[in-house]
Amino acid sequence: MVNVLSIQSHVAYGHVGNSSAVFPLQRLGIEVWPVHTVQFSNHTGYGEWTGRVFDGQAVEEVVQGIADRGVLDRCDAVLSGYLGSADIGHAVVQTVGRVRDANRDAVYCCDPVIGDVGRGIFVRPGIEDFMREVAVPAADLVTPNHFELDLLSGRTTESLPAVKDAVAAVQALGPSVVLTTSLVTDDTPDDAVDLLASEGGRHFMVRTPRLGVSVNGAGDAIAALFLAHWLDTRSAGEALGRAAASVFCLLQRTEDAGSREILLVAAQEEFVTPTRTFEVTEV
Predict the structure, then answer these.
(1) Per-residue pLDDT of the chain (283 residues; tens, 9 = 90+)
(2) Which among 29, 26, 24, 21 is positioned nearest to 109, based on CA atoms?
């Protein structure tokens, strides 16, 4: 049994953060230990929500309770996403250290949530620097979108060779595996979007049709799925193909239903046997 410690936000209604990452992992047969950084009624995209934000100490207390069960040596990976503060970020990285002390084979997958095209940087001041200087260097796998790849690498990329150089710059910070999502270069058709998985000097690409749906939580889901499949195969290319197919089918189902929330439960079979697959090409 694979065990993943997932430290992310949580919403009661809808699917973002742990509410988007935990169930797909469980559906793939992975045991998940979720630690919540916030507990909100719904995601903030609605404009109104209730609930509270936890601090780094709250995260550390829950992790300590897990450690007290004597099970950290059975933790195979730590997964993190949006960080509400650098305080929580330091608690995440401290947890990664504790897990690695207990299990030297454990990996850390960091989704370096900073911003996106059209929205710009939407995290609090200090988070971008924390990601670049602390979290990403501590990670084994990172899953930035194209906008975040440019921020982390300090570059502006429009061509695939430039993207590869940016990936190499991010890998030089520490992580060996980089999944770049929402990738659009001068070679990407207007009706498509690319994903690029890079590992060991090799780059693998999947191109999917561009959908019109815009929902929260898809990035959280693909980070979790990519981690799950990488843990299973230890291959960035294979993990990319499986994760990309599942998330595309999930979003296609969501778009067809006209839903504002991703249909994580209704489309759960897509995590196991996606109805559509895409060619993985080494580039």
Answers:
(1) 999 999 999 999 999 999 999 999 999 999 999 999 999 999 988 999 999 989 999 999 999 999 999 999 999 999 999 988 899 999 999 999 999 999 999 999 999 999 998 889 988 899 999 999 999 999 999 999 999 999 999 999 999 999 999 999 999 999 999 999 999 999 999 999 999 999 999 999 999 999 999 899 999 999 999 999 999 999 999 999 999 999 999 999 999 999 999 999 999 999 999 999 999 999 9
(2) 21
Query: In this structure, how many other beta carbons lie within 10 angstroms of the beta carbon of residue 76?
Result: 18
Cβ partners under 8 Å of residue 249, min gap 6: 267, 270, 274, 275, 276
Radius of gyration, alpha carbons of the chain = 17
- CA 56 vs. chain centroid, Å, equals 20
The candidate with the shortest Cα–Cα distance to 7, out of 59, 70, 57, 61, is 59
Token pair in block for residue 125: 């001041």
